[in-house]
Amino acid sequence: MSNTLAAPSRWERFKNSDILYYFKKDKVAMVCFAVFLTFATTALFAPFIAPSNPYDLASIDIMDSELPPSWMEDGDENFLLGTDDQGRDILSTMLYGARLSLTIGLLAVALQMTLGIVIGLTAGYYGGRVDSFLMRIADVQLSFSTMMVAIIVSAIFRTALGAETYAQYAVIMLVMIIGIAEWPQYARTVRASVLAEKKKEYVEAAKVMGFRAPRIMFRHILPNCLSPILVISTVQVANAIMSEAALSFLGLGLPVDQPSLGSLISIGFKYIFSGAWWITVFPGILLVVLVLVINLLGDWLRDVFNPKIYKG
């Protein structure tokens, strides 16, 4: 009989990994992950959890507008957190809004990551004039604030497509706007990693074996650059959600009939001084907590992947 032991499965390797060990030791990371998982789950199943559908005009009564939370005087037990100016249930709009905000944030980060990885790999691997040209473009974009770039791109899309068409494809437009505005963060980080990796022996061996540049970049160098990419992605999801909220608050994001967290805060801000504070406060709290837990998870990942910083 052979005494050869079977190779451990992926699940067994994960259970014995350092990242899970440090995760179990860090109570803040565990709480943040639990909170984020709760938000993501409730947002994903919003159509089944929400008391009402804020997109269904037949279920909305304008006579129910600006009702306070159910525990306050004049509150209605059918609307736990009150209603907005259109009579929509605040709890339902928050669940659907978190769903939209998370969707835009994740898709925008996927676009940023794709652009940044391709540009960063190309610049770092080829060097010379290609590197200088691509990095100068990144430097020019970084000289402007993210919000300024997003506002300019949003204005261009609105002018080219028209307000009605833009509103119809608002989610896609926001993903493109935020993705275009933030790719230099990835490109600079990936480029720095590639400059360090391409001098190593395994890259030289791949060149000697006759592998083409794209295969070397994506099959050999990129896997060794994933740690900083993962850390950036966590932080960038929070930034993308905040960017969407800011654009919607300024009226450049989602239309009022598609309630994201930013558009809810924008709607409620008009009524906050008239006493209907709940329209803005509850979505605002949800947005702050969501961004906070994602940022804390990003900080934890950064420390775990940097043993010089992490103290367990």
Automatic annotation (TrEMBL):
Residues in ABC transmembrane type-1 domain copies: 98-298
Gene3D superfamilies, sorted: MetI-like (1.10.3720.10)
Key word Membrane present: yes
Subcellular location: Cell membrane
Location, primary (coarse class): membrane
Transmembrane segments: 28-50, 104-128, 140-160, 166-183, 221-242, 276-298
Membrane topology annotation: Multi-pass membrane protein
GO cellular component: plasma membrane
Annotated GO biological process: transmembrane transport
Key words of the record: Cell membrane, Membrane, Transmembrane, Transmembrane helix, Transport
InterPro entries: BP-dependent_transpt_permease, MetI-like, MetI-like_sf, OppC_N
Family, per entry: Belongs to the binding-protein-dependent transport system permease family.
Protein name (record): ABC transporter permease
Organism (species): Photobacterium angustum
